[in-house]
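Input record (one chain):
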Amino acid sequence: ITKFFPHFIYNTLPPYFVRWRSDFFILPLLFVFSFVCSIFALLIINLLIMKLLGNILWLLFGGLECALGYFAGSLALMITIIGIPFGIQTFKLGILCLWPFGSQVRENPESNGCLSLVMNIFWLIFGGLATCLGHLFFGILLCLTIIGIPFAMEHFKMAKLSLLPFGKTIEVAI
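The corresponding structure, as predicted from the sequence alone:
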C-alpha cells in the first residue's frame, strides 16, 4: 500500500487496518473510482465531439445557406423602422441556424406581455407560418432516414421557434 499512498498517510491509518486488509479494501475502491471517472470523462468528451460534428455537418449540408437567408431577411426587415423587431427575430433564427446542436430555445419570463402576443400574431400572419411549414417539411423529409433523424429534430426545434419567436431566447452552447 505504500506505493499508492505517501508514507505519512499510511502511518495514520487506524490500527485495525492490517496491511493485507487495507490493500484488500483500498485497491478495489481505487480501481472502481478511476473506472467511473474515466467512463464519465469519455461520455462528456463523446457528447462534445458529437455536437461539434453535428454542427459541422449541419453547416456543410444546408445550415449555412439557411442562416444566410435568415440574415439577409433580417437586414431587409431592419431597413424600415416598423420591421426592426421582426428583423431581430429573424436574426435570432439565423443564429440558431448556424449552431443548432446543443443550443436551447427557452421562454423569456420578462416578455410575456400583450405586446409579445400582438407581435407573434403579426409574425404568424406575415411569414411565420411559411417558415414553420418549411422547417416541418424538411424535418419530415430527414426523418425518412435514420441518419437524418438528429437533423430533423433540429428542424423541428427551429419550426417551433419560427412559429412564435417573440418572448423566447436562444442559449447557444459552443
